[in-house]
Amino acid sequence: PAMEGEQRAEEAAEQLRRYRRDPGGWSGCRSTGEVAVSWRPSAEFAGNLYRGEGILPGSPRDVWECIKPVAGGLRTKWDQNVKDFEVIEALSDTVSVCRTTTPSAFMRIISPREFVDVVVMKQYEDGTMLSAATNVEHPLCPPRSDYVRGFNYPCGCLCIPVPGEPDKTQLLTFFQTDLGGYLPQTVVDSFFPSSISGFYRNLTKAVKALKA
């Protein structure tokens, strides 16, 4: 039901804001010119919650244009981890059930995945724009034999204005994903930090291209 979906989405958004406010327990695992990645054990499932933090060379609106979770959006063009993104059902103006498919990754050790999530978009008074998602089941999206079904737990992005720097955006991302299937933990633990740094690197290029 739509009400339940909207509620799950709101809870995911609230969870992201809690992660943002909660500085404790993070361990740094990777740092590039674009992003610092840290992790801590997830409270949602038997894996890790990852946090990426970086400053991007574009206004929050430009960055949002590149990452917003909408049908026909730019993300499938620049994000190498997103093969296809489709809206299955719009529950309201800001909440929808979406299906994301990912290509094989990590030298094909990780086969193609699909994720079905309820996604919410929000804007706050300080100009921060947020998209949050969490896994959901939907009758129009039964599991498919050619994809391994993975599960996202509360995850998403916050585009935060940088005071006095209108052409910069602090991008805070949270990922906590059960990839499903039978992957060695070592593969999972090395995949996410490298995938997140790739996300920031490719997004930085996409934002620059958008402004060009």
From TrEMBL:
Keywords, comma-separated and alphabetical: Lipid transport, Lipid-binding, Transport
Entries under Pfam families matching the protein: START (PF01852)
One BP annotation, GO: cholesterol import
One GO MF term: cholesterol transfer activity
Keyword Transport listed: yes
Source organism superkingdom: Eukaryota
InterPro entries with a match to the protein in the record: StARD5/6, START-like_dom_sf, START_lipid-bd_dom
START domain boundaries: 1-212
Role noted for this protein: May be involved in the intracellular transport of sterols or other lipids. May bind cholesterol or other sterols.
Protein name per Swiss-Prot or TrEMBL: STAR5 protein
Organism: Campylorhamphus procurvoides
Gene name for this UniProt entry: Stard5
